[in-house]
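Worked Example 4.2. Consider the chain below.
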Amino acid sequence: MKESIHNYDDLLEMLDVLLQENSQFSWNNFYANREKQIPFFVNAPDENLVSYFEQGFFHSGRALELGCGPGRNAIYLAEHGYSVDAVDLSEEGIAWGRERAAEKNIHVNFINKSIFDLELEENAYDIVYDSGCFHHIAPHRRMSYLELLNKALKPNGYFGLTCFIPDGEQGGANISDLEVYRLRSLQGGLGYTEEKLRTLFQDYEVIQIRKMQEIKQPNHQFGVPFLWTALFRKR
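Applying the procedure from the previous section yields the following structure tokens:
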């Protein structure tokens, strides 16, 4: 790694390393043991994603899922008429997603990369969906995230999001952006208020922001009460 900053990319990479050096967490290790009692491991789509179809917002087209993990939402989108690109940093998560898709004879284009390394067509997607990736994005990467979103989405395209509420049962660190760097940690994932989500995505039309409905398992949908769900539309 470079230890001098000559441009904006150098700055981003240096801050990435600063946070990674203080963390023992590995997404590959997280997904390697599929028997762990992790709520997100269920093979069922987010209840809010299902509701977007029921309310008539989503129909068919191209979809991009950011941080797809084992693919439960990507597979649901593909089952309901979308051509889906699903991206995750974890080889284990992607492998699990491919197995699930094969079991259902569903095609999803799984991509094992950082979302910031994607080569995207401009205005290519009708939907960008993110279930639990955004709250693991460090503050210095939010501008890159917004650039990715703006490039990927068609005009009037939809951006769907689930993310931690502050001080939630399973995560949602209630700390400032500055504290992230003082602590050199995201503390397992950042919590967001509704006001902060509206501010961060202020260039988008807000369609709906609400808490996720709790869904007792086993069920054909997934829902936990410690997440926000949000749907935005690109102006």
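The chain has a mean pLDDT of 96. Residues 44 and 219 are 7 Å apart (CA to CA). Compare this with Example 4.1 before moving on.
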